[in-house]
Amino acid sequence: MKIFNLSGSKKIFCLLTFSLFVFLAENAACEQLKTREYWPTSGWKTSTPELQGMDSAKLMIADEFIQNRLPDAFSLLVVKNGYLVFEKYYSWGSPDKYAVVHSVTKSVTSALIGIALDKGYLNSVDQKLVDFFPEYITDESDPMKKEISIRHLLTMSAGFKWNDRGPSMRNWYLSSNWVKSAIQLPQENTPGDIFNYNSSTSHLLSIILTKSTKTSTLDFAKKNLFDPLGMQSAFWREDPQGYHIGGFGLGLSTRDLAKIGFLYLNNGYWDGQSIVSEYWVKESTDKQIQAFRHPIYGAFDYGYQWWVKNIDGCNSFRAWGRRGQFIVVVPELDLVIVVTSETAQPHPPTSIHYSPVFDLVAASVKRKRPPKKPLKAAKLPADVNAFITEYNQAQDAVTMADLISDRFLHDGVTKQMALRFLEGNLSYTSEAKIIITKFEPEGNQANIDAWLKDKYFEAPFMTGSKLIKENEHWKWYGNQVPR
Questions:
Q1: Do the Cβ atoms of 316 and 302 come closer than 8 Å?
Q2: pLDDT attached to residue 348
Q3: What pLDDT, on the 0 to 100 scale, is given for residue 281?
Q4: Is the bond preceding 381 in cis, omega lying within 30 degrees of 0?
Q5: Which of 96, 446, 458, 471 could bridge across to 441 with cysteines, CB 3.0–4.6 Å?
Q6: In the prediction, which pLDDT does 371 show?
């Protein structure tokens, strides 16, 4: 057996050689992603799904889902390997129609903040809000306001008392000074602690951008983002003071939205130049804070004004606007998906139910994957089976709510809130059925694993909830742990 005894200098040489190898390997992988057969600056080239490694028949299931479940959708656009492989318009949608993309605007604002940092207009995401608005954060202000940074604005964790769909949003929107109104909101949490979706803080990012660059957000965007990508911005609304709105108000075509997704898919590079730094793309699209868990569609996390969500087993991120406006990027599949929809405000909003579209599109990409195990229903007592059957056959939200315990509390949801949830979601989930895959009785309660199975998707249902027997009847019972 040979014994290797390296001298100190040789060890250092080997370490340096290995480090250089790792560096070159990492950068080679990065360069591979940046190298494209063409760049869609002047327009997208088309291809077929099959030529780009997709199954057309499976891709059409996503189209079918939209037609059957999402009557407000305007468009579905799919870019695979840099080629436009699917483009369809519904209702009043068209290639030339500019979509009011609502909160997709937030992700664009985030990109501009990253560009401003890269160009030296901003020092870091840890710069304090008070540095930009000393007139509104004074010695008399809540001390926590002095701790709010750009990072907190980006991650929706500034700590303000706010409800994006409640009176606070309306009062802010109707105020004469949006900056003052946003900053002087009551402080409810310590900055950085709690995610609370807040469009007014996204608007502050736009004003910070304007103050630091000495130009309007739109002009800065045109010069540093839109023009290099060959985008034709339709409009960007302004607040009462003339600042472009950082949280919404941007209008772009579906194909231009796909360019933003493609830029981020390529780590911020475009045709030989860095538009947004790789570091910023990664930071923005990694989980920075836990956002929320939906009882049907699972966990949603948040980066820097980008949502982070697993899609068909793949890491993914998305720009997400009210009423069904999306840019979805799946890096490991070299995939960008864009959806636009009618923007009139219904009650309740429906955009959460677009989630299966993206799983269906991703599932059409041909790749090696472990075989999917079919759901196996647990053997249930007759009375539990009768309860599940009754729930599955219920045709209205009130009947379904009657099968929920009056003491229901799951992740802070009361029974009345559950009823409103059922009323708002019934048209999207009416064909889905509950399957119990685990049933462990403990007296008058039972621990369960429940799945919601639909023609188009299956997902864990109300993870952590239980069943409880009340007056000889089984009902849904929350985990009794409020947020």
A1: no
A2: 62
A3: 98
A4: no
A5: 446
A6: 86
Torsion, CA 291, CA 146, CA 144, CA 129, rounded to 10: -20
Cα angle: 217, vertex 339, 374; to 5 degrees: 135
What stretches in the chain show pLDDT beneath 70? 1-34, 346-349, 480-483
Q: Token pair for residue 282?
A: 């990664």
Residue 439 pairs in a beta bridge with 448
List phi, psi (to 5°) of 10: -70, -40
Measure the CA angle with vertex 215, ends 210 and 218; round to 5°.
80
The DSSP-derived string for 152-168 is: HHHTT-S-B---TTSHH
Amino acid, res. 398 = V
Q: What is the pLDDT of residue 3?
A: 34
Burial class (CB in 10 A: 0-12, 13-18, 19+), 127: middle
DSSP letter, residue 266: T
| Residue 457 to residue 230: CA distance in whole angstroms | 37
State residue 99 phi and psi, 5-degree precision.
Answer: -85, 140
**Angle at Cα 308 formed by Cα 188 and Cα 256, nearest 5°?**
110
Q: Are strands 269-270 and 250-253 parallel, antiparallel or unpaired?
A: unpaired
Number of Cβ within a 10 Å radius of residue 466: 20
Number of Cβ atoms within 10 Å of the Cβ of 394: 17
The whole-model pTM stands at 0.89
| CA-wise closest residue to 38 among 99, 84, 90 | 84
